[in-house]
Every structure is written in structure tokens, then in C-alpha cells.
Amino acid sequence: MRNVLTFAWFSGFLWCLTGCEQVADVGADPDISSEVNEYQYERVQVTRRDIRIAVEAAGTVEPVTTVEVKSKASGEILELPVDTGEVVPVGSLLARIDQRVLNNTLEQSRASLDVAKARLTNSESQLQRVRTLYENKSLSKAEWEKSVLENAEAKSDVVRSEIQVENAVIQLSDSEVRAPINGTIIERAVEQGTVISSPMGSVSGGTLLLTMADLSRVQVRMLVDEIDIGKIQPGVVAEVTVAAYESRPFQGRVIKVEPQAVTQQNVTMFPVLIDIDNTDGLLKPGMNADVEVKIAERANVLSIPYAALLTVSDSYTVGSVLGYSREDIIGLLERSKPTESQRNSAADSSSENQALSDAQKRMQEIREKLQSGARPDAEEIAFMRKMRNQMGASDRKRTQRTSASTGQLGGNYVVFVVRGEEAFPVRVRTGITDLDYSEVISGLTESDEVLLLPSSGLVRAQQRFQDRMKGRMGIPGLNRRS
């Protein structure tokens, strides 16, 4: 019976370990693990590597500017000289509508204008005669007012006829549909001979003739998961790849992050627009694109596995694996001294500040020499050129750091470090992380090793499991819970 219960307890214990979290065991140190042997961990050397953060998503190429071309005139299409794929400049003839009715309307309007002008001339002559008779008191006031009204109506008829003529000219010009923008014909909806309706007097919106787009610049609309959307800001560089040109990536920039989310298969995503120069015309609307938005990148930096990082509260729980109590860890963290790398960094910073001060003095001397009218010698010219290049490199580095502020930046964490066969907690400052490795800014050196210990959740689950087994199964050698 005792063997059965012991086997059941160990089976449950192993199930808890594998069900909660898998922790690798690569070369565990017997000196460190001698106190607690039921946990597995890994010793990892602090190394230098390149860390790069990017957000990847799929998208579709679409034009930045798209125009639907319709005709303000109704009638039969007599001429349609363009086809899809043609690049046309602004003002080019796209379609010509039957003008016979429009020409007749224009001639009738002009004739009506001539009649209105003749009536106005007669009205003005009649008004002059009536004015003379009215002044001589040979005509009543009512007849005078009637003549004035007739003259005003004649003037109104002239204005009305002039407007009709102008409208007829506009309608006749509208029968020739011209390109509103410089662009490419991407869709042709009608053929020559089709009778179309104008959107000006049609409730249906009129007949669509063509669709034009300016393809000199295109944009890629991609959907980014809400988890990653906080890393993307307008202006961030993006690299776009399409299947037609797999070996040729296209460079672009994020121009907009849409505020309204889109839900697809219960996943919340946000549309992001990438602007791309398409002067060569290689990218076509509707192409599927793979987009990689570069958030941050570090080259040859100290790094440790992301799994080695612990919060201060988690370090209290995980420290029990190595036999540390909460008070022990608090004391070790408070008494931690700067590491060798921090001392070296401080020394390097001091030497760099001294070099910078000397360089500034030398530049001031050369500046005063130039102000006095003297010409610098070859050595001084070389020194100024060197300083200019260093300033440019510093600006580029600062720009890189600023652009990386939108990425996954680090913070203050605790790691367990092995030094001299002793493992103890230290505070570290981390930079960016790709969720596999994290950049180490301070707290560790290349000669250090860190421990990948079980997570605090696994340790707590193990402790809860042991408490349940003690209280319920009464395993020999273990005390029941009171």
C-alpha cells in the first residue's frame, strides 16, 4: 500500500511539473542544486549578440489616390480612346458623348438671346417716348409705371437668355470627358456605343465610365494585432515584399495608424498604412504584400535569455529554490555593489568626457584662428573633418535610440548570477528585447553566468500540490495538515 501511495504522489508531482511549465536541464551545477534537487535549471553564459525587434504582418497594395470618372452629359458614347493600363496626363480626352442634342440646345439658346436683346432695345425706345410724354403731363403715371416694368422684364429676359447660352456651352464641353488627374486607367466599365446617364439628374448616381489611380505612390494596408499596435508610430521604417519581386524589398514608412479596430475571427486588429514610392510602377493595386516594420535594433550588445529576468516579487518566490528566504534576497539586493562592467563603464565615461573637453578646446582654438583671418594647416583641417564625422555618427546613433523608443524597451529586473560557484540575486537594467533575448545595459559582464530557474508560478503550484498531498494522502514521512 505504501508503494502505491508513493508512486501516486510522484506521478502527480511529475504531472504538475510538465503541465505548469517545461524547464530545461542543461549541465546543472551540483554545488548550487545540492540543497534542492527536485527543480531543474540551466546555467547560461552572458554573451554578445544582435537584437532586432520588428512587427510582421500581411497586407494589400492599394493606390493612394483613386478617382471614379463619370460624364456630366447624358447620351451615347461615340469615342472611347483609352484602355486599362494606359498612363494618361491630366486633361487628356477619355470619352466623347453624342453632341447633336447639345448643339441644338446651344443654337436655340443663342436665338432666344437675340430675341431678348431685340425686345430690350424696343423696350428702351418705348420707355424713352413714354418718359417724354409723362414729363409733359400728356400721359398718366400708371402708363409710365407700366413701361418701366416692361423694360425691366426685357432686361431680365436678356440675362436669362445669356445664362441659358452659357449653360449650353458648359453642357457641350461636358460631352468631352477629360482626365482629372495624372494617373493610370485601372478599370473601364463601358464600351463605345453605350448610352450613359448623367449623375447630375439621376438618382442612381449616373453611369461609371472609368476608374483612374495615381500609381506613382501606393500604400499597403496591413492589419496589426492589438498586442503589437503600441509599438508602431507614424514615421517608422517598414520593408515590403511582394511575391512578384521576392528578391527586391521595397522601403516605405508608416503614415497612419487607423483609430478604429477591425475584428477578424475574434482577433482585434488595427489597420496600418505604409506609404511607398512606386515611381517604377512595379507595385500593382491588389498585390499581396508581406510587411516588416522595424521597431528597434541593437548590434553586438550584452544579452541574456528573456526567461532569466525576474521581478523583485517573483525573485522572493523563486529564490526559495536556492534556499534563500525573502529577507535574504532583500538584504542581498540592498547590499549589491556595482559590477566590474559598471566600474569600467564609469571609467570609460570619465575618459570620454576628458577627451571631449580636450576636443572642444582644440576646436575653440581653431575657430579663433579662423576668426583672426589665418588659414588652418593640414593637421587642423584633418582634425575638423574628424570631429565632423564623429558628430554625424553621434547624431545617427541618437536618432536610432529615439526611433527605438517605440519598441519593447526594458526596465529594472532581478537575475540570479553565478560567480565563484555561488548563486545570488543582482539587479540589472535591460534594454530592448525580442522576447527571446534581452539587452543588458548594466548589472552584468561577459564573464557572468545566469540561472534559468523555474517560474514563480511553477514554484507556487508545486508548493500547493505538496500541501494538498500532505493533507489528503498521508504519505509516510510527511506530516498531515492540521
Task: Walk me through this protein's architecture.
Mean pLDDT is 78; it is low at 1-38, 395-408 and 478-482. The strands form two sheets. A six-stranded antiparallel barrel has the order 2-9-13-11-10-14. Strands 6-5-3-8 form a four-stranded antiparallel beta sheet. Helix content is 38%, strand content 30%. The chain starts with a helix and ends in a 9-residue tail after the last helix. The chain contains eight helices and 18 strands. The protein has helices at 2-20, 100-135, 141-174, 312-318, 326-334, 340-371, 378-403, 456-473, and strands spanning 42-45, 47-70, 75-79, 87-88, 93-97, 176-178, 183-188, 195-196, 208-225, 237-242, 250-257, 262-264, 267-277, 288-305, 412-419, 422-433, 437-442, 449-452. By secondary structure, the protein is α+β, with helices and mostly antiparallel strands.
